[in-house]
Amino acid sequence: MRDDGMTARLVDALYIDATAVADSVRAYGQTAGRIEREAMPAVARIAYTCEMMRLTTRLTHVIAWLLTRQDLEAGEISWREANSAARRLAMIEATDPAVMASLPSGARSLVSAGEALHARAYRLQQKLNRPLAPASPAHRLIARLENAF
Hints:
The protein is built from seven helices and no strands.
């Protein structure tokens, strides 16, 4: 990582939050979510299912990105590998307000939590990938050498 350890603490805290939200989604889907889904008309059930799949995908991507950051911190992968296009966190469009309004309150709460978590991780990624202005030509040369290997 490129800082004094603050990023590692942020990543760890975000990972704890992400796993807590994922556990809440799982528990909801096995209890109240199942009951609420069964009570919905067919079209609303499809929208609900699609949104819950989007939420699961969003959380999975965030957790995978956080694990990549932890691997980077542990020295298991290079900065270049960690920031390759395949490992970057993509921006995911927010849930359509009309769809959000059609969801049961428990699902709305979880979707909002997932969107907020993704937004936090995305902002952290943007911060980490902002280029630092090298202090001298020697620093630029060192950075080029680090990226080459």
